[in-house]
């Protein structure tokens, strides 16, 4: 909006012709229209995938300070790296004008984990983030892979699905190892 105001000011002052305003307006309208035209299934996927990765990254950071268990910390480190990559892949697959949020973590999960330490933290982290979080993510990625309307997002979901499924398996194995139900 500031750029648009500056452009109007420059035109009014006679420094540039009127043609760039038309181009700027068309570009803004095209990207806004493209974002608004994203089918509901694809919009839901972008939201679910970005929330999942953001939550994974933020809770993994918590695990580095609040867990004393080397297996939990190792899992968290792995999640931080992989979900950062997945977020970048999602951004690259998203159509021009579609914003992929990077700071939209599930605050109820984070708020539940913040006061916990040690084994209590580990149990909740493994249950809520590791297993349940990845079950939801697998479902979202499968739905997009099967029903997605945007070819690039659908392809990104298909490509990322094995990684998300691997994360779920890792979380289930960690839960079994630590006796978490």
Summarize this structure as a short list of keywords or feature phrases:
181 residues, mainly alpha, Ferritin, 7 helices, elongated, disordered N terminus, DUF4142, signal, DUF4142 domain-containing protein
Topology:
Blueprint: H1 2-12, H2 19-36, H3 40-66, H4 70-93, H5 107-113, H6 118-147, H7 151-178
How do you describe this structure in short?
The chain is mostly helical and 181 residues long.
Describe the protein in words.
- This protein is an all-alpha fold.
- The protein folds into two domains: 1-37; 40-178, Ferritin, CATH 1.20.1260.10.
- Helices cover 80% and strands 0% of the residues.
- The protein has helices spanning 2-12, 19-36, 40-66, 70-93, 107-113, 118-147, 151-178.
- Helix 6 (118-147) runs antiparallel to helix 7 (151-178).
- The longest helix has 30 residues, at 118-147.
- The radius of gyration is 21 Å and the shape is elongated.
- The termini are far apart.
- The model is unreliable at 1-35 (pLDDT under 50).
Q: In angstroms, what separates the terminal alpha carbons?
A: 51 Å
Mean pLDDT: 85
Helix content: over 70%
Q: Can you tell me the CATH class of the largest domain?
A: Mainly Alpha
Care to count the β-strands? 0
Number of separate structural domains: 2
What is the 3D shape? elongated
Find the CATH superfamily of the largest domain.
Ferritin, core subunit, four-helix bundle
- Rg result: 21 Å
| CATH topology assignment of the largest domain | Ferritin
* Class computed from helices, strands and strand pairing: mainly alpha
Low-pLDDT parts are 1-35
Number of helices: 7
């Amino acid at each position: 909006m500031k750029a648009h105001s500056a452009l109007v000011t420059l035109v009014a002052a006679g420094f540039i012709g009127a043609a760039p305003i038309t181009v700027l307006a068309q570009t803004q309208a095209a990207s806004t229209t493209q974002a608004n035209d994203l089918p509901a299934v694809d919009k839901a996927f972008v939201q679910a995938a970005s929330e999942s990765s953001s939550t994974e990254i933020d809770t993994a950071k918590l695990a580095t300070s609040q867990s004393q268990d080397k297996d939990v910390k190792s899992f968290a480190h792995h999640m931080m790296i992989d979900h950062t990559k997945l977020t970048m892949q999602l951004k690259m697959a998203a159509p021009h004008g579609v914003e992929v949020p990077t700071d939209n973590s599930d605050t109820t999960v984070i708020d539940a984990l913040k006061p916990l330490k040690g084994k209590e933290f580990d149990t909740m982290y493994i249950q809520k983030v590791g297993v349940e979080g990845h079950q939801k993510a697998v479902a979202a990625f499968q739905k997009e892979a099967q029903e997605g309307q945007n070819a690039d997002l659908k392809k990104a979901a298909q490509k990322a699905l094995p990684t998300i499924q691997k994360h779920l398996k890792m979380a289930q194995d960690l839960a079994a190892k630590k006796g978490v139900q």
